[in-house]
């Protein structure tokens, strides 16, 4: 595996490339052109400039999170082919710049959903949290207002103000889209992009829906083993793979995370590792990465990745806000750096135990 950190670009991130480089064992970043709208073309010059900036800091771009997929593609509307064309050209430009992993999601309207961005934990740290009761009590159009006040002056992915200004229209767009239709549209998109992915060896890594069930009555498909395997078989190409995000699949306690990892051998192209702490199956908060701080056995998760021979980029996922840091919720420096060090420690121990036959 290649340990990385997510970085939003110097204009948007409170964390610098220099700070990232000083985290032991972190050699690369997962980044994006954060200002790009879904459906917009990324030019080779723009990608090249980003790459030069990252490399000048002694790091490498290990992949993109995300090249976002437009609502036209997700809903299969008349102009989807135009957006797919732009997506293909973007992939081609990424390939020419030697970037070979692209994370994306196929969630309607909202990217991840949380009901609190700064819930206080007993140790005084703050974390993102979710309660189903809060979602059920909320008018989806008000969702953005309830989140916006807690972003610490940043713009969170999927919650851009321009997008949320149109939230009513977005719901309208998806009103006839059920799970089957969304799945068909995903397959259509994947079939269209596979030739360029093959040509430039670009591994597509779909991010799971978070939480892993339907919210506000919207369709959700990337939620469990059965659905992902269905997607793998529908477009049976190694370039059609997944981001294994423990904190997203893990929202549903019925998902057996190590078992899912093992059954996706060869098709996990990117890993997000994070822990959650459950008060009840529908009331959870994000925890420190350590097993003992949350509800998951992180050793078993990392062990499963090791056992399937996972060699792609991995990153600590959302961290807690600690030590007085002010940053994008989930994306501060300190707790993610602790997470990276912890995952590196688990990996080293697992690797040495295995190669020394312990
Ligand atoms: C999530 C998502 O993994 C995460 O941190 O917050 O925003 C994720 O980056 C996207 O869904 C991937 O397209
Ligand atoms: Mn994730």
Percentage of residues in DSSP E strands? 15-25%
Q: What's the gyration radius in Å?
A: 19 Å
Strand order of the largest sheet: 1-2-3-4-7-8-9-12
| Ligand kinds | D-mannonic acid, manganese (II) ion
Helix/sheet category = alpha/beta
- Could you please say which CATH topology applies here? TIM Barrel
What count of domains describes the coordinates?
1
CATH architecture: Alpha-Beta Barrel
CATH superfamily placement: Divalent-metal-dependent TIM barrel enzymes
The CATH class assignment is Alpha Beta
* Low-confidence residue ranges: none
The gross shape turns out to be globular
Whole-number mean pLDDT: 95
Please trace the helix and strand order, writing H or E for each element: EHEHEHHEEEHHHHHEHEHHEEEHEH
Largest sheet: 8 strands, parallel, barrel
Helix tally?
14
Distance between the termini: 21 Å
- How many β-strand runs? 12
Overall description:
The chain has 14 helices and twelve strands. The chain has 358 residues and is of the alpha/beta class. The protein has a single domain (2-355), classed as Alpha-Beta Barrel (TIM Barrel). The strands form two sheets. It has an eight-stranded parallel barrel, surrounded by four helices. Strands 5-6-11-10 form a four-stranded antiparallel beta sheet. Helix 4 runs parallel beside helix 9, helix 12 (257-263) runs parallel beside helix 13 (298-307) and helix 13 crosses helix 14 (334-355). The relative contact order is 0.14. The mean pLDDT is 95. Bound molecules: D-mannonic acid and manganese (II) ion. D-mannonic acid (CS2) is lined by residues 65-66, 103-105, 111-112, 157-158, 207, 245, 272, 317. D-mannonic acid is lined by residues 65-66, 103-105, 111-112, 157-158, 207, 245, 272, 317.
């Amino acid at each position: 595996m290649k340990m990385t950190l997510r970085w939003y670009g110097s204009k948007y991130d409170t964390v610098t490339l220099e700070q990232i480089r000083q985290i032991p064992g972190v050699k690369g970043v997962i980044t994006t052109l954060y200002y790009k709208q879904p459906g917009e073309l990324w030019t080779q010059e723009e990608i090249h400039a980003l790459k030069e900036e990252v490399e000048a800091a002694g790091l490498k771009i290990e992949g993109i999170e995300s090249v976002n997929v437009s609502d036209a593609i997700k809903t299969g509307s008349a102009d989807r082919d135009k957006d797919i064309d732009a997506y293909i050209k973007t992939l081609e430009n990424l390939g020419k710049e030697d970037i070979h992993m692209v994370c994306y999601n196929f969630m309607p309207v909202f990217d991840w959903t949380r009901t609190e961005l700064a819930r206080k934990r007993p140790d005084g740290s703050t974390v993102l949290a979710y309660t189903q009761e809060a979602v059920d009590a909320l008018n989806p159009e008000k969702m953005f207002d309830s989140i916006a006040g807690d972003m610490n002056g940043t713009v969170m992915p999927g919650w851009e103000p321009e997008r949320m200004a149109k939230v009513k229209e977005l719901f309208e767009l998806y009103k006839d889209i059920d799970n089957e239709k969304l799945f068909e549209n995903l397959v259509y998109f994947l079939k269209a992009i596979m030739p360029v992915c093959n040509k430039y060896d670009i591994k597509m890594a779909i991010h799971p829906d978070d939480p892993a069930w339907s919210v506000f009555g919207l369709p959700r498909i990337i939620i469990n083993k059965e659905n992902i395997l269905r997607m793998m078989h529908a477009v049976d190409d190694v370039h059609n793979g997944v981001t294994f995000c423990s904190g997203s699949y893990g929202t549903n306690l019925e998902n057996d995370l190590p078992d899912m990892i093992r059954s996706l051998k060869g098709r996990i192209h990117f890993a997000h590792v994070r822990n959650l702490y459950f008060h009840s199956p529908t009331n959870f908060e994000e925890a420190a990465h350590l097993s003992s701080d949350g509800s998951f056995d992180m050793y078993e998760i990392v062990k499963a990745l090791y056992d399937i021979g996972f060699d792609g980029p991995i990153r600590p996922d959302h961290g807690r806000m600690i030590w007085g840091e002010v940053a994008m919720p989930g994306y501060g420096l300190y707790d993610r750096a602790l997470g990276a060090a912890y995952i590196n420690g688990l990996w080293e121990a697992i690797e040495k135990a295995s190669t020394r036959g312990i």
